[in-house]
Amino acid sequence: MSSDTDVSLSSYDEGQGSKLIRKAREAPFVPIGMAGFAAIVAYGLYKLKSRGNTKMSVHLIHMRVAAQGFVVGAMTLGMGYSMYQEFWAKPKP
């Protein structure tokens, strides 16, 4: 039994909280997208009682589209941010 594997054990020793913080620093728009999605879903559930004559299915479709739109927007901004960091913000050697 040889130990030829080059697996770094530092990632296994990392706790859940520190891993989440590290991932949020690497891609800051992911937690923003998740928070926006949760906020839109919470708002949709809050407004569910006062939807008026709107059918339930139409209300749910509108909320789904709004939540997906927010997440896609956050992903697009995150991609633009990472492209900016990689190509324009780096000092030229």
UniProtKB/TrEMBL annotation:
Where is it located? Mitochondrion membrane
The transmembrane residues are: 27-45, 65-84
Enumerate the Pfam families for this protein: HIG_1_N
Where in this chain does the record put each HIG1 domain? 1-93
Instruction: Read off the InterPro entries from this record.
Output: Hypoxia_induced_domain, RCF1
- Keywords of this entry: Membrane, Transmembrane, Transmembrane helix
Set out the biological process GO terms recorded for this chain's protein: mitochondrial respirasome assembly; negative regulation of apoptotic process
- Just give the chief location class: mitochondrion
Keyword Lipoprotein appears in the UniProt entry: no
**Annotated GO CC locations:** mitochondrial membrane
Q: What is this protein called?
A: HIG1 domain family member 1A, mitochondrial
Can you name the source organism?
A: Tursiops truncatus (Atlantic bottle-nosed dolphin)
